[in-house]
Design a protein that fits this description.
alpha+beta; 7-stranded mixed beta sheet; 25 helices; 29 strands; disordered N terminus
Length: 765
C-alpha cells in the first residue's frame, strides 16, 4: 500500500493544504465492459456539491489533521458521479480526515487515522466499486491483460433485440408478448449495469444519470412503451461507449508523459562492467550510458561523448540540441547521434520528468472558473428540471388538458433532458486537452484555472536579467586607444583574472588566455576596479569613475564611454599612469528570441513592462532594442511588487515573467506568474503558475493564444449544451419530442462538445 505523511496541496495555491478541488471529469473513461463484471462509468449530472477554487468537498483536512495517507486505484472512478458518491459515503466514515481525487488516473487518496484500510475498502465496495492499493495496482499494471472486447457482443445482441421489438410494434408482425420479451432482452443485456448503479445512487439520495435513465426507462415500460424503452437504453449504452473512446484521447494525451522515461538503464557497476538495472534502483552519482536512439533514463551531467538530443518531450524545443561534456541531460529526452556517458544527478523519483508528472497530476485537480460556474449551474438546473417534470406529469391531467399517459410520457422525456451531461463534461475535457497541448509545447501549467484565465492578461511585466537577456555578461566590444593593442589585451586579461567580479570574469573569458604576466602590488578597488604593477609600470583596469579619479577623461574618451553606456553596456577601461590604453564593453546580451516574443505579445494586444534592478540607462537601451512599451530600472524586489500592485489597482490583468526566485514577490502578486528556464530548476516548477521548460520567451505569447482558443471552445460548448437542451425542453412541452430523441439530444450533444474540446490536441506545435 502506498502511504505517505506528506500534506496534500491545492495546485491553485501550493502553500495551502489541498481541499480537493480535483473534481474535474478528466476522463469519463466509460470502458467497453460486459455486463457481468465491468463498469459503464457515468456522467455527473447532479453535482450536488459546489466546488469553487478553494472550496472543500464533503470532507477536508489540513496539515494539522495528520494521519496516514493511503492511495487506491479505483477503475470505476473517473468522473464526478463516482466522486460525489465516494465523498458522501467516506465522509460519513469515522476516522476519515480528507480525500484527494485524481480522476484522470482513477486514484483516490484518503487521509485517515484508522488502524487499517479495510473499512475504507469495504465502504467503497458498498458503492459497487473496487479499491486496489496504489502500489499493488502499479505492480500489476505491467501484467494486466488487454481489455476485453466481449462487451461488444452483448451490446450488438441488445441492439438487435431492441430493433426487433420496434419493428414488431410498428408493423404488428408479432404478438404483444414477443414485443415485450425482445424489449426485456435488450434492456437486460445493455441496461443491467445502469440499473445497478442507478439503485446505488438512489440509496445515496443522488439523482445522477444512471438513476434518471433507470426511472425514465422503467416509466416508459410501465405505460406500455416497451420498444421505445428498449431503444432508449440501447442508444444510451452505445453513446456512452462512443464517448468513452473519444475521451480516452484526452487521457492518453497526458498519459503519454508517463511513458517517456525508460524503466531500465545501462549502468557501470563497481567492477567496471556495464549492466542493465531498473531505473528506480539507480543511485545519484552512478555512471550511465546512452547509445544512439535510446532515451536518457535519469537527469544527469555528461562525462564523456558528444551528441545531439531531442528535448522536445521535456522542453518543447523543435530542433535537437548539441550536448557535450559538462552539459545537463534530462530523463525522457532522446539521444540521436553519438554514444554518451553521464553521471546521475537526481533519483528517478525527483527527475525533471517526475516533477512535471506531479505538476500535471495537480493541474488536473484545480478547478477553472468555467468549471465552477458549471457546477453551480447544474446544482440548480437538474432539480429545477426534475421539478418541472413532476409538474408536467401531474398538473395538466388534473386541469383536464390531456390524458395521464400522455403527460407522464412527456415527463419521462423531461427526465432524460434534465441530465446536464454535455454541460458537465464540456469544460474538463476542453481544459485537459488544453493542458496536454501546452505540455507538448514545453509549457507546464499548474492548473486549468491558469490556462483559462490567461486570455485576460492585458499587461505582461518582465524581468530583464535571465528573461529578456541571457543572464550572463559577455565581452561585446574591444576598442584600442593607445599603444600595442595585443599587449593591452594581455594586460587587461591578466588583471581581470585576479578579480571575482562578474564583469571581470566576463572580460577574462572574452579575452581568452594570453601569456601569463608577473603582477606586483595587485590591489582590488571596491566599486571601481583593480590595479597592479607589471614590469614596474602601474596599470589600472576599472570603470568610468576610476578613470575620472585618475584625471584621464578627455572629450574623446567621454564620448566613447557615453556611447557604450547608452547602449546598456558596462565599460571597463585599461589605463597606465598617463593615458587610457583600451576600452572594453561588457553586456548581458539579449536572447535571440526576445524581440520576436515581444512583437508576438503586441500582436495579441498585450502591453509590456520591463522591471529591472539594473540602471535606468541600460534598461532603457534594452527596452528600445526589443520594443518594450515601458521600462523601469533601479528597482528592488519590493519595488517590482509595488509596480505590479499599481497595475492591478488600476483594474488591469497582469502577468509576470521572472526566474521564480528573485522575483518571487512580484510573481506571487501577479494574476499569473511565468517562470523561465524551468528545465532542471526545482524552484521554478514549484513556485510558478506557468513554467516554460526552456528559455524561449515566445512561449508566453503561445500560451496566451492557447488560452484564448481554450476559452473560445469553452464558451462554444456551453452554448451548444444549453441551447440544445432549451430546444428540447420546448419540443417536449409541445409534445413533439420522444424518449429516443431526448437520448440522442443528450448524448449527441455530449459527443459534440467532447470532439469540439479535443480539437485543442490537433493544434500544430
Amino acid at each position: 500500500m502506498d502511504r505517505t505523511t506528506e500534506p496534500l496541496r491545492d495546485p491553485a495555491n501550493p502553500s495551502a493544504p489541498c481541499t480537493h478541488t480535483a473534481a474535474h471529469c478528466h476522463g469519463h473513461d466509460h470502458h467497453d465492459h460486459d455486463h457481468d463484471h465491468d463498469h459503464d462509468h457515468d456522467h455527473d449530472h447532479d453535482h450536488d456539491h459546489d466546488h469553487d477554487a478553494h472550496a472543500t468537498s464533503s470532507v477536508s483536512f489540513s496539515e494539522a489533521d495528520g494521519g496516514t495517507l493511503s492511495r487506491f486505484r479505483i477503475e470505476a472512478m473517473d468522473c464526478p458521479t463516482e466522486q460525489r458518491l465516494l465523498e458522501k459515503r467516506l465522509g460519513a466514515l469515522p476516522g476519515i480526515h480528507g480525500l484527494e481525487f485524481n480522476l484522470i488516473n482513477r486514484v483516490l487518496g484518503v487521509r485517515h487515522s484508522l488502524l487499517g484500510t479495510a473499512p475504507i475498502e469495504a465502504a467503497i465496495a458498498e458503492l459497487g466499486m473496487t479499491a486496489v492499493p496504489l502500489a499493488q495496482a502499479q505492480a500489476e499494471a505491467g501484467q494486466a491483460p488487454a481489455p476485453s472486447k466481449r462487451g461488444r457482443v452483448p451490446l450488438a445482441v441488445g441492439l438487435l433485440a431492441a430493433a426487433a421489438a420496434e419493428l414488431c410494434h410498428l408493423y404488428q408482425a408479432g404478438p404483444p408478448w414477443l414485443v415485450i420479451a425482445l424489449a426485456l432482452v435488450a434492456i437486460f443485456i445493455t441496461g443491467l449495469g445502469t440499473y445497478r448503479k442507478g439503485w446505488i445512487a438512489l440509496r445515496q439520495r443522488n439523482l445522477n444519470i444512471n438513476a434518471l435513465m433507470s426511472i425514465a426507462v422503467t416509466g416508459a415500460a410501465l405505460i406500455g412503451q416497451w420498444p421505445e424503452a428498449a431503444m432508449v437504453m440501447v442508444l444510451f449504452a452505445i453513446a456512452e461507449r462512443i464517448e468513452a473512446r473519444s475521451l480516452e484521447r484526452a487521457r492518453n494525451a497526458i498519459g503519454a508523459l508517463m511513458r517517456l522515461a525508460p524503466e531500465t538503464a545501462t549502468v557501470r557497476g563497481e567492477d567496471g562492467q556495464w549492466q542493465v538495472r531498473e531505473v528506480v534502483n539507480i543511485a545519484v552519482g552512478s555512471l550511465l550510458r546512452a547509445r544512439p536512439g535510446e532515451r536518457i533514463a535519469l537527469d544527469g551531467e555528461i562525462t564523456a561523448g558528444r551528441s545531439t538530443l531531442d528535448q522536445a518531450p521535456i522542453t518543447g524545443e523543435s530542433l535537437p540540441v548539441e550536448k557535450t561534456i559538462g552539459d545537463a541531460v534530462f530523463a525522457g529526452t532522446i539521444n540521436q547521434a553519438g554514444e554518451l556517458e553521464y553521471r546521475a544527478t537526481q533519483l528517478a523519483s525527483n527527475s525533471t520528468l517526475s516533477r512535471i508528472l506531479r505538476v500535471v497530476e495537480q493541474a488536473q485537480g484545480s478547478r477553472a472558473p468555467t468549471q465552477r460556474f458549471v457546477d453551480q449551474f447544474s446544482r440548480v438546473y437538474t432539480p429545477a428540471v426534475i421539478g418541472l417534470a413532476c409538474a408536467v406529469a401531474l398538473l395538466p391531467p388534473l386541469l383536464g388538458l390531456g390524458t395521464w399517459l400522455e403527460w407522464l410520457y412527456r415527463a419521462l422525456v423531461l427526465l432524460v433532458v434534465a441530465c446536464p451531461c454535455a454541460l458537465v463534461i464540456s469544460t474538463p475535457v476542453t481544459l485537459v486537452s488544453g493542458l496536454a497541448a501546452a505540455a507538448r509545447r514545453g509549457i507546464l501549467v499548474k492548473g486549468g484555472a491558469y490556462l483559462e484565465m490567461a486570455h485576460r492578461v492585458q499587461w505582461l511585466a518582465l524581468d530583464k536579467t535571465g528573461t529578456l537577456t541571457r543572464g550572463a555578461p559577455m565581452l561585446t566590444d574591444v576598442i584600442p586607444l593607445q599603444g600595442d593593442p595585443e599587449r593591452a589585451r594581455g594586460i587587461a586579461a591578466n588583471l581581470a583574472r585576479r578579480s571575482d567580479h562578474p564583469v571581470s570574469k566576463a572580460l577574462a573569458a572574452g579575452l581568452g588566455a594570453p601569456a601569463e604576466m608577473a603582477l606586483a602590488e595587485f590591489e582590488a578597488l571596491p566599486g571601481r576596479g583593480s590595479r597592479a604593477r607589471i614590469n614596474g609600470q602601474l596599470y589600472t583596469l576599472g570603470n568610468h569613475r576610476l578613470v575620472e579619479e585618475q584625471g584621464l577623461c578627455g572629450p574623446q574618451l567621454e564620448a566613447l564611454l557615453a556611447r557604450l553606456e547608452q547602449a546598456g553596456k558596462s565599460v571597463v577601461v585599461l589605463c597606465d599612469a598617463e593615458r587610457a590604453l583600451a576600452l572594453f564593453g561588457v553586456a548581458d546580451t539579449l536572447r535571440e528570441t526576445s524581440a520576436e516574443a515581444i512583437a508576438a505579445l503586441h500582436r495579441l494586444g498585450v502591453k509590456t513592462l520591463m522591471l529591472s534592478g539594473d540602471n535606468q540607462v541600460a534598461v532603457t537601451a534594452i527596452a528600445a532594442q526589443v520594443g518594450i512599451d515601458q521600462a523601469r530600472g533601479n528597482l528592488l524586489p519590493e519595488d517590482k511588487l509595488v509596480a505590479i500592485e499599481a497595475l492591478i489597482d488600476a483594474g488591469e490583468w497582469v502577468g509576470m515573467v521572472g526566474d521564480g526566485i528573485n522575483d518571487a514577490p512580484a510573481l506571487a502578486r501577479a494574476h499569473i506568474g511565468f517562470a523561465m528556464g524551468a528545465a532542471g530548476s526545482h524552484t521554478a516548477i514549484e513556485t510558478a503558475d506557468v513554467a516554460l521548460m526552456d528559455d524561449d520567451l515566445r512561449k508566453v505569447a503561445e500560451f496566451i493564444g492557447l488560452s484564448r482558443r481554450t476559452r473560445s471552445l469553452l464558451i462554444q460548448n456551453i452554448v451548444l449544451a444549453l441551447g440544445i437542451k432549451a430546444v428540447f425542453l420546448a419540443l417536449t412541452m409541445l409534445g413533439m419530442a420522444t424518449l429516443w430523441m431526448a437520448v440522442f439530444a443528450d448524448m449527441g450533444v455530449s459527443l459534440l462538445v467532447v470532439f469540439n474540446g479535443l480539437r485543442l490536441l490537433r493544434l500544430p506545435r
